[in-house]
Amino acid sequence: MRILLLVLVLLMTGCATAPVAVQRAPFVDAPFSFNGRISVKYGMRHDATDIHWQHRGYDDITLLGPLGYTAARIYRDANGATLDDAYGKHYAAPDAESLMEKTLGWSVPLSDLRYWIVANPSPDSDSKAERNKYGQIGTLIQQGWEIRYVRYTTTKVDALPLEINMFRSGLDVVVKVDKWEAQ
Q: What is the pLDDT of residues 131-144, one digit of tens each?
C-alpha cells in the first residue's frame, strides 16, 4: 500500500507542468481567452468575482459566484449586448457599457478593455503609454482611464499581463489573470 501511494505521488509530481508563457498575438484585435479574478470598487461598494473571458470577434464574459455558479454572463457582438443573471433574468442593450451600468451599477468600456486586457492601446482614440524597463507598457492613459500593468507572464516585450489596475473617477478595477489560454 505504501509503495502504491509513493508511486501515485511520484506520478502526480512528474505530470505537473510549469505554466506556459503565452505571448501576445502580432495583430491588435487578436482572439484571447483567460480565467482570473476581477475586483471593482466604486463609492462605498466593493465587488469581487472570478471571471472567464473569451474574445473572438465577440465577447463572452462569465462572472462566477463564490461557489463557482454563474452569477452573470455578458455577451457582446456587433448587434449589441446581453446579460443573463443567476436568477434567470435576461437584459439587452445596444452596447455593453449601458447594459452593465443598468444591471451591475458600474461599467467599463468593453470596446476598449478588449485591447487593454492584452496590453494594447485601443486604436479608436488617442492614448499615452509609458513603458517599463523591459519595453512593456507599464502605464496607459486612454479615454480618461489610467491603466497600470503591475505584472506580466515574462519579461519579454510581447508578454501578456497577469495583473492590471484601472482607475477612473471613483471606479477602481483590478484584473488578475490566473491562466491565459493559447489561441
A: 999 999 999 999 99
**Beta carbons within 10 angstroms of residue 84's beta carbon:** 17
Q: How far apart are the first and last CA of the chain?
A: 43
* The three grid cell numbers given for residue 85, joined into one nine-digit string: 443573471
Show the domain range for 122: 25-181
Region for residue 116 given its phi and psi (left: phi exceeds 0; alpha: psi -120 to 50; beta: otherwise) = alpha
The CATH number assigned to the domain holding 167 equals 2.50.20.10
Instruction: Give the global pTM.
Output: 0.82
Tally the domains of the chain.
1
Yes or no: say if 36 and 173 are a contact pair by the CB < 8 Å rule.
no
User: What is the distance between the alpha carbons of residues 22 and 29, in angstroms, rounded to a whole number?
Assistant: 16
